[in-house]
Design brief:
Blueprint (H helix, E strand, L loop, with lengths): L3 H15 L2 H8 E4 L5 E4 L2 E4 L4 E6 L3 H12 L3 E9 L2 H7 L13 E6 L7 H15 L6 E6 L16 H13 L4 H10 L7 H6 L3 E7 L22 H10 L8 H9 L13 E7 L1 H14 L3 E12 H19 L6 H17 L6 H9 L7 E10 L10 H19 L8 E9 L11 E4 L3 H7 L4 H6 L3 H7 L6 E2 L10 E9 L1
Parallel strand pairs: 4-5, 4-7, 5-6, 7-8, 8-9, 10-11
Antiparallel strand pairs: 1-2, 2-3, 11-15, 12-13, 12-15, 13-14
Helix pairs in contact: 1-11, 2-3, 6-7, 7-9, 12-13, 12-15
């Protein structure tokens, strides 16, 4: 029979496969009918009255565009996509031909945003997209492809603001401690295309956006700074942020000009009746697929949340306590004082982590029904944060796996006849883009035995953790056997965690 580890790997792969550009587009988008063709997106029909155009921006957009062009065929008149510098070459090198456009493609590719920062190349692409959008008529249909990393690839400061002035202002805000949300509000206010700008320019054409979300909660106005979504912020909000960081009197002349001439209230919603935004890939959709697979393998499967965020150490504790609770339940101790303590700890942790939309009490209730007769699978996703203390090499997924390994080891050491000892346990955490931090791995596996087995090889887990050196640890430990290595996937819906437990 397959090991828990092999099951965990296959669940991760099936979750990622479901949000890879080609399968994702082919599932979501169909073109129907010859005489009066219609574009069907997730069951919604859009008549193709005249010409079909395509624009896109983001790290996964090249693969999405290649798949879209295959589906749209002759109906596509012209397209422009902005993608990260060097991406065509690296996909070519990785042998991922399916992510590249055909030689006779009608889509122009502009590479820019070196190091994920807006640059003149990205600006050139943004201007080309802006001009295409402005030229559309009422019978045209504009398909917009959006993925994470789209913001840096769509810089279009409102004239007379120059890109370098906008960049300097953002840097000043960042250096004074502005949060990413605040930076985005200022960026959007000074941009022609962000905060719904692209949709407004494309009017009166029909605009259909296909979105691959890499943001917790899939907020349309935040992903790639919401070029086709009504902005929930106004010029007032921007001015307040600039005032908060004492920048109102240090603004470039051009920024003052734009801020003083902008309308002060957010655009009314009816301006967007020609727009439809559709999330075709997300962490939630990936987890749903993993759940289907896990149930097919015979696991009692629960999804904790697709929005797990917070400091990696706290999140590791959350997962360790959940694993303890399942094992106590397997041992028939699910209603005892020990389980009550664990449940109390979990509720407090969840409250501190503030995971959006998580009803943990309800989840714990569902766990109560699980006995040792069926193996259990708990799935989750999101994005943790790591407070760097050391100079080692690692990523948040490998760090999370290593911390869970240590936490399970400690829990077992404390309890003399630990219920953990009567369960086989595997934990996996991986980045769906295939790259966890600046490493070759997507993430890592761990189990309660990890710490002791590592000590036999002379590797001390705590020392590696205090230096944020999880990749070095996993590379050395058992010859890299616990690393999750997938190679670049061409997609990104943040991270996925899987917990598999069976009674021994």
């Amino acid at each position: 029979s397959m090991s828990l580890r092999e099951h965990a790997l296959s669940l991760f792969r099936s979750a990622v496969d479901t949000v890879r550009p080609a399968p994702m587009l082919k599932r979501a988008v169909k073109l129907q009918g010859d005489r009066c063709p219609q574009l069907l997106v997730k069951g919604q029909a859009f008549p193709v009255k005249r010409d079909l155009y395509l624009v896109g921006f983001g790290k996964a957009v090249l693969g999405m565009a290649a798949a879209a062009e295959e589906i749209l065929g002759e109906h596509l008149v012209r397209g422009i996509i902005n993608v990260p510098l060097g991406i065509q070459e690296s996909l070519q090198r990785a042998g991922m031909q399916e992510m590249l456009l055909k030689p006779d493609s009608k889509i122009q590719v502009i590479e820019g945003a070196k190091n994920n920062l807006p640059d003149p190349e990205a600006l050139k692409g943004a201007v080309a997209i802006q001009e295409l959008a402005e030229g559309l008529t009422v019978d045209d249909l504009l398909l917009v492809l959006i993925s994470g990393g789209g913001s840096a690839l769509l810089p279009a400061p409102i004239p007379p603001i120059l890109l370098k002035e906008k960049e300097k202002l953002t840097k000043m805000l960042a250096s004074r401690g502005a949060a990413i949300q605040e930076l985005n509000i200022v960026r959007k206010t000074l941009s022609l295309l962000k905060g719904g700008g692209l949709a407004r320019l494309a009017y009166p054409a029909r605009v259909v956006s296909l979105i691959l979300s890499d943001v917790i909660g899939d907020p349309l106005d935040i992903i790639a700074s919401g070029p086709t979504a009504a902005s929930s912020h106004s010029v007032q909000d921007c001015l307040q942020i600039l005032a908060k960081y004492n920048l109102l009197h240090h603004l470039p002349k051009s920024v003052e000009t734009v801020l003083s001439s902008s309308p002060t209230k957010p655009t009314a919603l009816e301006d967007y009746s020609h727009v439809c935004n559709i999330i075709i890939g997300s962490n939630t959709l990936a987890l749903d697929e993993a759940k289907r697979q896990a149930e097919g393998l015979g696991y009692a499967t629960l999804i904790l949340s697709a929005a797990v965020c917070g400091e990696v150490g706290r999140v590791a504790t959350l997962y360790c306590q959940l694993i303890r609770l399942v094992c106590l339940g397997f041992a028939g101790l699910g209603e005892g004082t020990l389980s009550d303590d664990v449940r109390g700890n979990l509720l407090q942790l969840a409250a501190e982590l503030e995971i959006p939309g998580l009803n943990l009490a309800e989840f714990l209730q569902a766990l109560r029904g699980l006995g040792p007769e069926r193996p259990v699978c708990i799935l989750a996703g999101g994005e943790t944060t790591v407070q760097l203390q050391g100079t080692g090499k690692g990523g948040r997924n490998q760090e999370l796996a290593l911390r869970v390994g240590l936490g399970l080891h400690r829990a077992q050491a404390v309890e003399t006849s630990s219920p953990l000892g009567r369960c086989e346990i595997v934990f996996l955490s991986g980045g769906t883009d295939g790259q966890d931090g600046p490493t070759e791995a997507a993430g890592a596996f761990c189990s309660p035995e990890l710490v002791d087995e590592a000590l036999q090889e002379g590797l001390g887990v705590e020392a590696f953790l205090s230096n944020n050196d999880s990749y070095t640890f996993f590379s050395q430990f058992q010859g890299g056997h616990h690393l999750l290595v997938t190679g670049l996937t061409g997609t990104n819906v943040m991270d996925i965690q899987a917990i598999l437990i069976r009674a021994t």
